[in-house]
Amino acid sequence: MRRFLTRRIGQVIGTIFGVVTLIFFLQRLTGDPTYLLVPETATQADIDAMRASLGFDRPLIVQYLAFLKQIASFDLGRSVIQNVPVWDIIASRLPYTLQLAGGALLVACGLGIPVGIILALYRDHPASRLLASVVLAAQSMPTFWSGIILILIFAVTLGWLPPSSTGGIEHLVMPSIALGLLSMATFARITRTSLLDELSKDYVRTARSRGVPMGRLLRRHLARNASIPVITVAALEISNLLAGAVIVETVFAWPGLGQVTVQSILARDFLVVQGIVLLGAFVTVALNLAADLLYSAVDPRIRLDGSRR
Amino acid sequence: MTSATASAPLRQVGKPRRSITRWVPIILIAFFVLAAVFAPLLAPYDPNSQNLLGRMRPPGTMSRSFHYLLGSDELGRDLLTRLIYGARVSLFVAIASVILSGVVGVLLGMLAGYLRGWVELIVMRLVDVFLSIPAILLAIITVAVLGTGLVNVIVVLALTRWPRYARIAYGQTLSVANMPYVRLAAFMGASTPRVLLRHILPNIIGAVTVVATLEFGLMVLFEAGLSFLGLGVQPPTASWGAMLSSGRNYLATAWWIATFPGLCLFLLILAVNLIGDDLRDRFDPRSQ
Question: Which residues have a Cβ under 8 Å from the Cβ of A194 and sit 6 or more positions away?
Fold first, then answer.
């Protein structure tokens, strides 16, 4: 266990190091990153002054080491437009995005897992076929369109829910559904596949022939055995939800990290964008690590000596 | 994932695959492709000609010389015409970015799997790093650097998505590279490009095609998403994502502006996903 942890954490650090390096070189894709940080109206003198003050006139390797050092001390820089630390902007918006992602995850798991179970248990039933096509449709629905359709139906036509912005829990309903729908399809599919796999095993047939009722079998044995692929997907889906929030937040004018990302690009506030992308990557890496650790808690057969990967 | 159900072959014999549903997605895609290719012939009007007297007219109305079959947008432009031209943008961006990222990714993946050593190390670590950043965020930060526009969107998508192909090509190449005939070819003096293109590529192209199909749907979605955020194809070029975005402001008065472009997107992506699933089933019978 300890050897696995050391190895895995070493990998995580390697990946994070790689991400930071990638972002550093992405900044320089067009040559001079100074242009990303000055307003469009800046004069040549402004640009030169900015370049010198940010150290972009130094050799590349020096800049790279300085960037690594800056990120390693958790310094994401200051927003050029708002003139506050990027962390402050992230801290003020993060709670909204977490609320939204939480709501969406609730929709995704709460609908997706039961739907997957139904699809697996009654797979030849006509109603189940219909449900399968609903899942497929949900999977092909762009979040910005499902969001708009929800607004049209529930806000504009029926007037049941507020169309956008924040407030009480009723403001969270439509964004959560729009964001969660796609993940719902993923959860349903993976639950179905994994449960079908498990159902075809010998112990299930034996138990059934001995008269163990399906419900009990499901609770006592299948739930745990079939949950491993679901956990992997859950880790991936949470990071997908956080990334998908960029679009859904724009649809519903939800003041989270996604909205501020888009606003910052349009306002040419590059460091804010960079900070949020770095945060997103770190969260994704951390979630994958968490999923790996969860496997062993669910299934002791998986020995954490790295032999599985 | 390993145990194929024993009854699977029996089910297939007893129940022939639904051949009609298989044709529906192909017909849908053909419909969009034809619309895109023959846009100037099919579209009733010019996609950018405005008619400020006929703004936001509902589907089926007439205004001056215009007959708006699917209604008009906030500048009095014909929605049907813009939908047809929007298909061009969607399909062009998706095809170009799939080809670009596919070629780059497959080449790098094959090289990594065949040459091993430090090439494998560098390429596969790079793939891991790229894939650890959520795709939308990676695309967004690249747009922030490169700027918006049609060509940049293609570059951004290719840059973001090549690791998917590299990973699949790498895995497949690993399993093929040690087959006797490949080793024999190398032993007989075939150059690395020849071994890769003549002997390995034909064996891995099936798996790559499945990935490419699913990626195609994703690319349509990404282009629309970026354009929706104002980071993709810029106005006045007709793009479904951008049309949705402007229609969002008029939901209460003109539902059609946002609804129809979204419907087109949905149908196109649905069709691509259906074909992708079908290909995957055929390529890998276990995944049923």
Answer: A226, A227, A228, A229, A230
What's the CATH superfamily of B8-287?
MetI-like (1.10.3720.10)
Q: How many CB atoms lie within 10 A of CB B96?
A: 18
What's phi and psi for B72, nearest 5 deg?
A: -125, 160
ipTM metric: 0.83
Half-sphere exposure of A20 (CA within 13 A, CB side): 21
A191 close contact with B: CB closer than 8 A: no
* A 227-266: CB under 8 A from B: 229, 239-240, 242-244, 246-247, 250-251, 261-262, 265-266
What's the Cα-to-Cα distance from A9 to each of A53, A70, A174, A305, B38, rounded to whole Å?
36, 21, 38, 13, 55
Best mutation target among A135, A205, A265 (most B Cβ atoms within 10 Å) is A265
Is A158 an 8 Å CB contact of chain B? no
Are B208 and B102 within 8 A, CB to CB? Answer: yes
Question: Residue A307's closest CA among A231, A296, B232?
Answer: A296
pLDDT per residue of chain B (288 residues) written in tens, 0 to 9: 344 444 444 444 444 455 667 788 889 999 899 988 888 888 777 787 777 777 777 787 776 666 777 777 777 788 888 888 989 999 999 999 999 999 999 999 999 999 988 999 999 989 989 988 888 888 888 888 888 888 999 999 999 999 999 999 999 998 888 888 888 888 888 888 888 888 899 988 888 998 899 899 999 999 999 999 888 888 888 889 888 888 888 877 888 888 899 999 999 999 998 888 888 777 765 544
What DSSP state is assigned to residue B74? T
Q: Across the interface, do A265 and B135 touch by the CB < 8 Å criterion?
A: no
Contact B270 A244 (CB under 8 A): no
Q: How far is A143 from A180, CA to CA, in rounded Å? A: 9
- B228 contacts A250? CB cut-off 8 A: yes
CB contacts < 8 A (A, B): 144
Please state the pTM of the whole predicted model. Answer: 0.85
